[in-house]
Structure formats: structure tokens, C-alpha cells
Amino acid sequence: MIKLSRNDAIKDGENLFLVYCVLGSVVYAKRVSDVNSSPTYELEEVLKYYRKIEIMEK
Hints:
mainly beta
């Protein structure tokens, strides 16, 4: 089971996202160019445990 927290990183191929918040089974994330935080999760793995990922615009 994955339990995401603020500032965890999600990777989808070359795209990187930083978790802004988690509300229930929805993850809100922002697209970033570089991530210094860890751990980094693969998008496919995250979607096994969370229903939806909303990408927030800057």
C-alpha cells in the first residue's frame, strides 16, 4: 500500500509531478521539471491505490 504525502514525487515516463495534497482517493499534483524529494513513485503504481490524479496548473 502506498500512502502519499505532500511533496512526494510521481514519475510518468519523462514527466515529474509533486504531490500538493491528497483528499480521500484523489491526488492533487503539480508538474515540475526537477524533484529533489524522495521517494519517487511510478504513476502506474500510484493508480493501483488512488482513484484519480488531478494535475494542477501553476
